[in-house]
Design goal:
Layout (H helix, E strand, L loop, with lengths): L3 E7 L3 E7 L5 E8 L2 H9 L5 E6 L4 H8 L5 E5 L14 H14 L13 H29 L16 H6 L4 H32 L4 H5 L7 H11 L8 H7 L4 E4 L4 E4 L2 E4 L5 E5 L5 H14 L6 H9 L4 H22 L5 H8 L1
Parallel strand pairs: 1-4, 4-5
Antiparallel strand pairs: 1-2, 2-3, 6-9, 7-8
Length: about 350
């Protein structure tokens, strides 16, 4: 049977499809509605193994779950890696053809999509993250309202319900005072929703066996464990801790060139210092926030504190020490999750020494 390589350019109302055979010839082009039954009917009309690709986006999770049982392979590709789509002519048909070509050549960078077992937890984690960001946004607006009038705002006291009347009396302008009242009302509503979303997320995560395993690691509580499971889905995606560091935004980008030379016909590696370019810019923001915040807390208290203090004693700057500590917590979390074993504080103490 013939293999088909299908590229889909997905939009809100329509999907433009290009189908190539194993020789790279476009054998079919079509435009269908962005509807589940329409997509199913099209794929079932291709008689043979189907390899399908489309870019990560709003419809990616829905389309992945829809098509995965119907085809031999689904590749949800990273649009930031598809440089070919930026060159030459640009249209929906051309993009679909280029996607099919890249899929057939094996040149696509896949974006991981897990099984449906964590789909509910993912949605609840998105809800919680959005509400946390909304609360922060309203708090910043409220603080800016007072700071713009040279009114000092001590930490957190401006948000307390007890002293709000006193804060409002400091605003002489009627419009500013009414705006502050509206912001306080908005903040109260968002804080209530945020707490509900957190409870829902933690409750959903409790049904996953990995939750208890992850909470064995210091500084990984119910909320952070739920966020990690919702994002990672399975630790076996990552072969080594270095791959996990890159995904969490904790990996250092290095650049080197002309590394090798020849002496008397034998190759050798030059003793050149590798240049660094800071941390990777392609990472999961939720996981970076989880492990960075865990490192900040672990540097003050807990079983990782001696490790952090040992790094400082060796002359490492506080910023580099926190990064190293975040990588240590991330690597420990991955190892404990993979092996399902207990956290061993003695190993951390030995490494700190």
């Amino acid at each position: 049977m013939k293999d088909y390589y299908v590229g889909m350019d997905v939009h809100k109302a329509s999907i433009v499809i290009a189908v190539q055979n194993a020789a790279g010839k476009v054998v079919m082009q079509s435009i269908i509605e962005t509807k589940a039954q329409t997509v199913r009917d099209f794929i079932k009309g291709l008689h043979g193994p189907v390899h399908l690709t489309f870019e990560e986006g709003v419809h990616a999770a829905w389309l992945y779950d829809l098509t995965r049982p119907l085809v031999a392979e689904v590749v949800v590709c990273d649009p930031r890696k598809n440089k070919l789509l930026l060159s030459g002519n640009k249209s929906d048909r051309v993009d679909a053809q280029k996607l099919a070509h890249l899929l057939r050549a094996g040149l696509l960078q896949a974006v991981y999509h897990g099984e449906q077992g964590t789909r509910s937890l993912k949605e609840l984690a998105h809800s919680y993250d959005s509400l946390v960001q909304d609360c922060t946004r309203v708090m910043n607006r409220l603080r800016a309202l007072y700071r713009g009038r040279a009114i000092e705002c001590p930490e957190q006291s401006i948000y307390d319900t007890a002293g709000r009347a006193q804060w409002l009396t400091q605003l002489d302008d009627k419009g500013a005072r009414l705006r502050a009242e509206n912001l306080y009302k908005q903040l109260d509503a968002l804080l209530t929703l945020r707490d509900e979303a957190r409870t829902q997320m933690v409750s959903e995560a409790a049904a996953h066996p990995a939750t208890q395993i992850l909470q064995r690691v210091p500084m990984i509580g119910p909320v952070r464990a739920a966020q990690i499971i919702a994002t990672v889905n399975t630790p076996h995606r990552f072969r080594t801790k270095r791959q996990f560091w890159a995904y969490c935004g904790l990996a250092v980008v290095t650049k080197s060139s002309a590394e090798y030379g020849f002496t008397k016909g034998e190759v050798y590696k030059k003793q050149k210092k590798t240049s660094t370019r800071g941390l990777t810019h392609n990472f999961n923001r939720r996981l970076k926030e989880v492990f960075k915040s865990a490192a900040v807390t672990a540097g003050v208290r807990g079983q990782f504190k001696p490790y952090y203090e040992g790094l400082l004693a060796k002359g490492m700057s506080p910023e580099s020490a926190r990064l190293t500590l975040a990588r240590k917590i991330a690597a420990t979390t991955l190892a404990v999750w993979k092996k399902g074993e207990e956290f061993d504080p003695h190993r951390v103490a030995q490494q700190a020494a």
